[in-house]
Every structure is written in C-alpha cells, then in structure tokens.
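[step 3/7] inverse_fold.run input=structure_tokens len=610
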C-alpha cells in the first residue's frame, strides 16, 4: 500500500501516528544497540585491563562518543518517558481551554529547544576542525547526531498533534515558534536584569506550563541571548554538549539498565519476599516491608523514579487491601523511594561527583550511613501511622534463610558496586558496566526472552538520554549563575547567621529545601552543588558530608509540592490525585526532615562518620 492509499484509508491522523511510531521504534532500536555496544566496550576494557594488563587506545574517547550518540538518539523518545520531567500541576488546575493553551506553549518551548539543538549543533560542526588523535575520526562526528535529534524532537510534537487531528493547535504552535525564533534572531533588548535571573524566570515559566525540564532550561538560556547573555547560540550548545561529555556519566545508563533488568527478570521479587520475612511481623508489617524493599532495592537501581514505579505497582494495591487509604498507601510508596538516590549505587551522587569532582567512593559510603538513618526515621513514622491488622505472622528461621538464599544474586550486585568503587578495584564506570553485565547474566539465567531484554535496553536508553539531556542543558544556566557571581550571594546569605559550620549548614539547608520545592534533584545538584560546596568547606564542613546532606535535602523535595517528582510518578501509576498524596505524606516528610537534622549534627560534631 502506498502512502497515498494509506492516507485515503486512515486519514492524515492515522498516518501521522504510524510515522511517529516508526520513528520511535527506529530510534529505540538504535539506542538499544548503542547501549549494547557501550556495554561490550566497557566489558572488553575491564577484561583486557585486569586479566591481560593491557587495553586499546581510544576506548575512553569512543565510550564518550557513544554516550553522546545514546543521548541524541534517546532525546526524542524521552519526551514521552517517565523521566520527561514535566510539572503539570498548573495545567491540571485550569479549565480545558486553559489546559489547551498551556499545552500549546509547552509544545512550542520543546520545539524551539529542538531547533536550538539542531541549528546550534550545525553551527558547531561548521566550526569544528581536525581529527581525533585517539580514534582517527573527524571531530565533528562526535556531535553530528544532535542535528537530526533536534529535528526529530520537532517531528514528535508535530506528529502527535496531527495524530489527534489537532490541525488548528499545530498551526498555532508553529506560528508561535516561528514568531519567537525570528524575534530572537533579529531583536535585542536592554532591561537591566542579570542574564541568570532572566534565564531563571523564563525557565520557571516553562516549568509552570509543563514543558519538559531540560527543554525549559535550554530555551531559557537561549532566550537570554537577545537580552545581553554572554553565550551565543553555538557557545550555548557547546556548553550543553560539554556537560554531557564526562566519562563518569557513562555509569548512569549502566546503573539504570541493572535496575531495569533486575525488575524485569523477577529477581527484585525475591528481594520483596526476603524483606517480608525480615520485617513483615512488625507493626505496620506491609509498610515496613515496602521500606525494607526500598533499602534492599537501592543497592540495585540507583534511581528513585525506578523504585517509585516498581513499588507503586507491587505494594500500593496490597496496602489498600490491608486497610490503608489509597492516598496513605501512595505516600508510603513515594516516601520510601527517596532511599534509592541515597543508598548506593546512587545516580544523584554520580551527578554530584561529575559537577564537583568529589570522590564517588566516599560519597557512596556516606550514602549508606545517610540512607540507614533515613530508613530508621521512616520506620518509626510507619510504625506510628500503621493500620490495625497490618501485621503478618512471624517468619520461621528456615523461611528467612530460604528467602535470603533466593535473594543472594541481588546482593551480589551491591557488593560489586560499593566494594569495587570504594576500594579502588574498578572505576565507577567499570563497576556500573560490570553491574549491568551481571544483571544481564541473571536475566538470561532466569530465561528472560530476547524481546524482554531488548525492551529493557530500549527503555534504559530513553531514560539515560533524559538524564543526560538534563545534565547538559543545566550547563549554560550554571555558567550564567557563575558569571553573575550567584555563589558570592549565596555565601553572603549563608554567613548571615554566623560563620560556624552549624549556622552555615542551617542556612544552606534552608536554601536547598526551598530549591527542592521547584527544581528536580538532578538540576538542583548541577546548579547549586558547585555553588555551595566552597561555602561549606570554608566553614569547616567536610565536603563529602555536605554532599550526602545535599542529596538527602533535595530528595526530600521529591515529596514536596509543587514539583514533587516522586509523588507525581506514584500519582500517575496509582491514579491517586497528587494533592492527596502530598497531604498524606506529611508524617513521612517530618520523619525525613528529622533524619536530615541528625545528619547535619553528625556533620558538625562527628564528621568522621562520613
């Protein structure tokens, strides 16, 4: 059947949806392939290094190039993934006409961001010269895929509207995009605001109308150019690409893949049974099991969003059956999920290390200490809020032993990561690659089919691209903050209460709690970690201790309105309204703030714990 015949049979909407799906399938397949090649490359590098004391030139450079390709291929897919990072609180509160307007503005922001990526990269390609000395390839190939990536972002938005038959809406979005694009290239303004403040205001507007966070950041930095920003379009995109090009960030897709395979293969279910055998007989047994599973699963996924999705599917229905209200059950799931970005392997610590050059190994050891304190406070809160009858019979010693043996393969993953990194046996990226290979072996051992394994790779590619794009697009914003000496402003504010470590920590935690109300944890780490670290270090606080406190502080923001990413993930899966989840989670929020207070006291009086 020709395209004309298809158009006559199903109309333009049907054809548009099919084209969008075909593009998505092609990009997903290529992303999965690149991720598989990356995994093979790191595995071969580890084998050559440890068994043959050799290696091959250019492996690190090639890995970075492949990771950039992974982000470029996955960026259009990330628009519809669980990590699209959209805050839809305002659109939900509006009547249907208002929702349509905010959706059009959000689509226009995303399309403009795609244009910036495509044309900015094209400008960089024209300027790049030379050959990579390690790979022998033209340097422009490193970023070339971002040109079609930006255009595919536009196509995803346009085809989605055509698929709904929303021709008027698409026309309005295209008109808005064209008007802003032409105005930004031909007009200049002098309003006297610092570029970083203007960028923050534009990004805030984009976030309010539910534009994806990375695209709101990138467009905000681009729109600051007509108002006197130091970053022109190629420099802005170059700063974005440089933020994605750090070798340490290769660990993120591998840790995500390990968590995805662990869940899909059923090994995560063994952790649930072991957790039930350990704490199911406590008061609030199922709630405590949810918490214990998060503690155990943290050593596998490294992603709070992944754990929130897993627990919402696994535990929420059972908690409701045991008498918990849907909103209280959802609040339990969301609050326990904060542990995954604290207990290693933690993607948040990888982002922090990449932004500040702190030791990943020390951060992860500190994360174990911080995560266990958080778990203790949450356990107390869950005991206090337990429903009558939520208590299972005590498991026998034989049952505990059997469930522990069954869960043993999952524990091996945590040992690979923590021991390998902390004692310098492998680098962080190598440990992540070995962890991914280990879980792939477990999946094959569990007879996981090729289709399921491919889907795990495809899903991971999209999620890793979303995180990588966020890291990159936060770069220009962070640059503008540095140019406007926002670190000096924060330092002055942090010392208003005094110069001692306790007072400086109190001021910084106050700022971070406010930041966590509005920003995703990844963006907040990238923007405020480098700004605050010199301030607390000058006050005598151990940098690693502050790194743990910073991540814990911002993870609390995953439970607070209006952004509350973890709450929105649970809300999307359980269909419980987000405002009800925010209200029901108050006891657990108080418990987590209590754990944060204890960690701050430890950082002041017992810094050697970190």
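[step 3/7] decode complete -> sequence:
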């Amino acid at each position: 059947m020709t395209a004309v015949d298809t158009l006559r049979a199903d109309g333009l909407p049907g054809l548009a949806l099919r084209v969008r799906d075909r593009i998505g399938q092609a990009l997903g397949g290529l992303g999965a392939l690149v991720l598989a090649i990356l995994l093979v490359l790191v595995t071969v590098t580890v084998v050559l290094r440890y068994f043959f004391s050799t290696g091959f030139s250019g492996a690190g450079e090639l890995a970075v190039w492949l990771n950039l390709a992974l982000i470029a291929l996955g960026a259009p897919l990330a628009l519809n993934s669980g990590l699209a990072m959209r805050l839809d609180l305002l659109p939900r509160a509006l009547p249907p006409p208002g929702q349509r307007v905010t959706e059009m503005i959000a689509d226009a922001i995303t399309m403009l961001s795609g244009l910036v990526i495509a044309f900015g990269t094209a400008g960089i390609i024209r300027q790049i010269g030379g050959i990579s000395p390690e790979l022998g390839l033209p340097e422009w190939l490193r970023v070339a895929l971002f040109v079609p990536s930006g255009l595919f972002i536009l196509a995803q938005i346009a085809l989605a509207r055509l698929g709904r038959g929303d021709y008027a809406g698409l026309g309005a979005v295209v008109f808005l995009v064209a008007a802003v694009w032409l105005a930004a290239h031909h007009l200049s303004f002098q309003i006297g605001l610092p570029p970083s403040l203007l960028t923050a205001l534009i990004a805030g507007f984009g976030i309010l109308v539910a534009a994806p966070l990375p695209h709101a950041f990138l467009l905000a930095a681009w729109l600051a150019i007509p108002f006197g920003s130091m970053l022109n379009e190629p420099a802005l995109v170059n700063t974005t690409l440089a933020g994605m090009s750090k070798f340490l960030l290769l660990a993120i897709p591998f840790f995500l893949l390990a968590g995805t395979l662990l869940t899909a293969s059923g090994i995560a279910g063994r952790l649930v049974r072991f957790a039930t055998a350990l704490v199911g007989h406590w008061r609030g047994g199922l709630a405590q099991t949810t918490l214990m599973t998060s503690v155990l699963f943290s050593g596998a996924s490294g992603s709070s969003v992944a754990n929130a999705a897993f627990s919402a599917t696994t535990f929420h229905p059972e908690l409701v059956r045991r008498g918990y209200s849907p909103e209280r059950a959802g609040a339990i799931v969301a609050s326990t999920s904060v542990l995954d970005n604290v207990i290693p392997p933690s993607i948040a610590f990888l982002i922090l290390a990449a932004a500040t050059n702190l030791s990943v190994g020390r951060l992860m050891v500190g994360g174990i200490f911080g995560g266990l304190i958080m778990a203790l406070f949450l356990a107390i809160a869950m005991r206090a809020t337990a429903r009558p009858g939520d208590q299972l019979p005590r498991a026998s010693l034989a049952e505990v032993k059997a469930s522990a043996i069954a869960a043993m393969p999952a524990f091996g993953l945590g040992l690979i990561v923590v021991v390998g990194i902390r004692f310098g046996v492998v680098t962080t990226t190598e440990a992540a690659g070995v962890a991914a290979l280990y879980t792939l072996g477990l999946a094959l051992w569990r007879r996981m089919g090729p289709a399921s394994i491919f889907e795990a790779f495809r899903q991971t590619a999209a999620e890793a691209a979303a995180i990588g794009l966020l890291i990159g697009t936060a770069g220009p914003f962070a640059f503008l903050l540095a140019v406007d000496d926002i670190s000096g402003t924060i330092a002055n504010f942090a010392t208003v209460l005094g110069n001692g470590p306790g007072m400086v920590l109190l001021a910084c935690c106050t700022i971070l709690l406010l930041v966590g109300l509005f920003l995703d944890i990844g963006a907040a780490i990238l923007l405020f970690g480098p700004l605050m670290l010199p301030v607390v270090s000058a006050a005598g606080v151990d940098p690693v201790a502050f790194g743990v406190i910073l991540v814990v502080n911002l993870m609390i923001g995953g439970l607070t309105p209006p952004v509350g990413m973890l709450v929105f993930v649970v809300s999307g899966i359980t269909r419980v309204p987000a405002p009800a989840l925010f209200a029901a989670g108050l006891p657990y929020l108080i418990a987590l703030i209590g754990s944060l207070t204890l960690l701050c006291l430890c950082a002041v009086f017992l810094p050697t714990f970190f």
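[step 4/7] annotate
The chain has two domains: 3-245, 249-609.
The CA atoms of residues 309 and 569 lie 7 Å apart.
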